[in-house]
Write a structure and sequence with these properties.
By secondary structure, the protein is an alpha+beta fold. The chain contains 13 helices and ten strands. It comes from Sphaerochaeta pleomorpha (strain ATCC BAA-1885 / DSM 22778 / Grapes).
Length: 373
């Protein structure tokens, strides 16, 4: 038998009582008030409901407040869903006024309860589907069981179909949730066999198998579609379908590509197959990265390290041109020259010599990663 939740009942009472300017309550099948215009009456026994359910009455009028225990003067009508009384709606007030609204309020309450029950079932189905998708893609599979395959068929998903894995990530804020929903909608709309869902801070897309060039087309289309959206998102892509049992490996590779992309912020999207030094960096423990930075920039404060790395980065990007680097940093060339000379003196590394470019560049990559934790 359908059960009315306290939250749903309270929302219905608030909506309908404000329309008729009369107090109302909704009582569960156990004759306990679950929602009332007078909040203090919630949880009280309602004798009129007990009478209606036991005697299957179509209406029970309380003439006075003390005629039935816990029942105020007014009219009480059964809430009937699929031939079963699931509760009672009561309207408090003079009988003529209360009865004038009785049947309308009864029918509206039944419709609202059915609507909320439908919404609840839709939400549960969506949550069940997402749990299945996470189990299938985001966890290692040693064998494709019959139950997993059958569960996929329940949701109209063929888990044996070759797919590519794409992950999307954006900074959490008020816009982020809507953008995730829109990206999921666009991925599903693009091909009815595509799968897209949320997991942690990501949108996971398992799309029908296609080449890297076709994936770039899809990604560029999405980037262009949301070009005016203030929310910037990053994308990681796997290195291709191998075997249906390896879909978790594809997910892991797409995630590594995404993390590299979002940490270094150089590109909007990255393919795992295009990663180079990022794969090595991923294997180095965080404490080792911190130790490396502190060794290069010994006795530097955190702020000095940040400023130094930024100056060095721009200096190298401008091929050692003090003038162009100073313009980008918005400082005088002499000031930049002094800063760089100070860095050389304190670190013992000559910025102009190629052999010292790698240690500084590595420190920069470590710093970017640590700042994004």
């Amino acid at each position: 038998m359908l059960q009315i939740s306290k939250q749903d009942a309270a929302e219905i009472v608030d909506q309908l009582s404000s329309l008729i300017n009369l107090k109302m309550n909704i009582v569960g099948s156990d004759a306990i008030i679950i929602a009332n215009s007078d909040r203090e009456r919630v949880g009280d026994f309602h004798e009129a409901t007990k009478q209606i359910i036991e005697n299957r009455l179509e209406e029970l009028v309380a003439v006075t407040d003390d005629q039935f225990i816990g029942t105020h003067a007014g009219t009480n009508l059964p809430l009937v869903i699929d031939g079963q009384i699931i509760g009672v709606v009561g309207i408090t007030g003079p009988y003529k006024e209360a009865r004038a609204y009785g049947q309308i309020i009864k029918k509206m309450t039944e419709i609202l309860i059915l609507g909320k029950d439908r919404d609840s079932k839709i939400l549960k189905l969506k949550q069940d589907k997402e749990r299945f998708e996470i189990e299938w893609i985001c966890n290692p599979q040693t064998v494709i069981t019959d139950s997993l395959r059958a569960k996929g068929q329940e949701f109209n998903i063929d888990i044996t179909k070759p797919r590519r894995l794409i992950l999307f990530c954006m900074e959490p804020n008020d816009i982020e949730s809507n953008l995730k929903s829109e990206i999921i909608h666009e991925i599903r709309k693009q091909d009815s066999e595509n799968v897209a869902f949320r997991n942690l801070n990501f949108v996971v897309a398992a799309i029908t198998n296609r080449s890297d060039d076709k994936i770039v087309e899809l990604i560029e289309k999405l980037i262009n579609k949301y070009a005016d959206n203030p929310m910037k998102f990053y994308i990681g892509v796997d290195d291709g379908f191998i075997d249906m049992l390896k879909i978790y490996d594809q997910y892991t590779k797409a995630r590594k590509a995404l993390i590299s992309c979002s940490q270094f912020g150089i590109q909007r999207y990255c393919f795992y197959s295009k990663l180079n030094i990022e794969l090595v960096l991923d294997e180095i423990p965080l404490n080792a990265k911190q130790l490396y930075i502190s060794k290069i920039f010994k006795d530097f404060s955190a702020e000095e390290i940040e400023e130094s790395i930024n100056a060095i980065k721009v200096f190298y990007e401008e091929d050692g041109s003090i003038k162009r680097a100073a313009e980008i940093l918005n400082i005088h060339p002499n000031t930049l020259q002094y800063k760089l000379k100070r860095i050389e003196t304190r670190t013992g590394l000559d910025l102009r010599k190629l052999k010292f470019a790698a240690p500084f560049s590595l420190a920069e990559l470590f710093m970017i990663e640590l700042n994004n934790l």
